[in-house]
Every structure is written in C-alpha cells, then in structure tokens.
Amino acid sequence: MLSFEAHPQNNQWIQLKWTTGSEINNKGFEVQRSLNGVDFEKIGWVNGAFNSQTKLNYAFDDRNVISGFKYYYRLNQVDMDGSNSYSKIRVASITNNDFGLIIYPIPTKDMLFLQSNQDIARYEITDAIGKICTIMDSDKNRFVKVDVLNYPEGTYFVKIFFNSGESIIKKWIKQ
Q1: Are the C-beta atoms of 64 and 119 separated by less than 8 Å?
Q2: Equal fold, 3-93 vs 102-174
Q3: Would you list the domain boundaries of the chain?
Q4: pLDDT in tens, 130-164
Q5: How confident is the model at residue 61 (pLDDT cuts 50, 70, 90)?
Q6: Which CATH number is associated with domain 102-174?
Q7: Comparing C-alpha atoms, which of 92, 87, 91, 68 is closest to residue 77?
C-alpha cells in the first residue's frame, strides 16, 4: 500500500482513500473503525483487483459519523488464500458548527440542560442503540431543561433541531 488517508468531507462524513502500487492475489480490503484506537470493527468491504501491476486508487465513505467524536480507521488487506495484513491507523473527526451549544452537566443524575446561541425547536433523545426515548418540541427557547431522573444509567444521544432547519447530535451520560 503506497498511501492511506482519512479526511472529513463537507463536515458530514469521512472519506478514506488509499493507493496500491501493485496487487498479487488481493481479494480486497476490510474497512475497520474504532472509537478508542484499540477495538476495531468492520464497517465495510472494498473488492481488490486480484492481480495488478499498475497503481490503483480506492475510496470508502463512512457516512455513519457524529460530530465531536474522534474516529480511528485501518484497512485489513485480505488475500485470496486468507492471509492478511493491516494498514497504519488513521484518525479523522467531524467538526460541524456546534451552534454555540452547551450540554451540562455530563454526567448527570436528574436534569440535563441544553443551551444554544440559536432557538431550539425540538429535541430527540435516543439510547446507545438508537431507540428513541423522548421527542419533545420546545418553546423555541435558547435554554431547555430536560428531566432525565427516570432514565436508566447509560450513554445517550440528544439530537437538537434548530429553527433554521439544521440539527446537531451530542452524546451525554446518565449516572
């Protein structure tokens, strides 16, 4: 592998690009991602050229990313006989406009406060597996109090919709 890069695209997704100089019995590339740089999971597959003596360029778009997280990527190059090798690890993140949003306290036990420099039209809270816990329209305030006392302990996400039509997702923790 001559090169391997990971770069945010339009602050919406992360594109991985890599180049091979030649390929011998290359079945393809397992694209892997981690949130901690240690525990990787497969997020995609890109077929290889099997045999090639020319330089080839590859790309993969990771569109399942959230602003504010650091993502670690590596490629697992797999040969037709099952042997494999790993690329170097690359890191990328999305840094969307945060609308001056402050979420506190994190972690929280009873109340979660959402504060922004734009009017908040609505918010949705989901648990770590994506199950919707709460959907609530706000009074188009820049400050919203959310009662989370009865939520079980764990990691949650709040998606905040602004009057402008834009939205942002933030992670928070319930103790």
Answers
A1: no
A2: yes
A3: 3-93, 102-174
A4: 999 999 998 778 899 999 999 999 999 999 998 87
A5: very high
A6: 2.60.40.1220
A7: 87
Angstrom CA distances, 95 to 55, 59, 66, 90, 110, stand at 33, 21, 9, 17, 29
The token duo for 82 is: 């099952």
Q: Nearest-CA neighbor of 49 among 87, 22, 81?
A: 22
Is the pLDDT reported for residue 41 higher than 90? yes
Domain 3-93 in CATH 2.60.40.10? The answer is: yes
Q: What is the pLDDT of residues 76-113, one digit of tens each?
A: 999 999 999 999 999 998 875 677 788 999 999 999 99
SS (H, E, C) the chain: CCEEEEEEECCCEEEEEEEECCEEEEEEEEEEEECCCCCCEEEEEEEEEEEECCCEEEEEEECCCCCCCEEEEEEEEEECCCCEEECCCEEEECCCCCCCCEEECCCECCEEEEEEEEEEEEEEEEECCCCEEEEEEEEEEEEEEEECCCCCCEEEEEEEEECCCCEEEEEEEEC
Taking Cα atoms as reference points, which of 60, 58, 59, 52 lies closest to residue 21? Answer: 52
